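Continuing the series of single-chain predictions for the mutant panel. This is the parent chain; the variants come on the following pages.
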Amino acid sequence: AVEAVAPGPSRMMVLASAAGVSDRDARGILDEVRDAVARWRDWAGQVGVSRATTRRIETALARVAPTRPGL
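Parent structure:
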């Protein structure tokens, strides 16, 4: 069920290939997304997102991007 909401890295690579994105570019994009999600709190603080909203977004991110190997 999680795969339907948050496809894992291998599924994302398949989707990227189907869309004509090279493996190299797809891996780079996945790395950028991982970094942005991991640094959400920093980004939120820089642009003045309230603590309550930051917590809500972090909770939502945790549901769709649970910590798993390769993600």
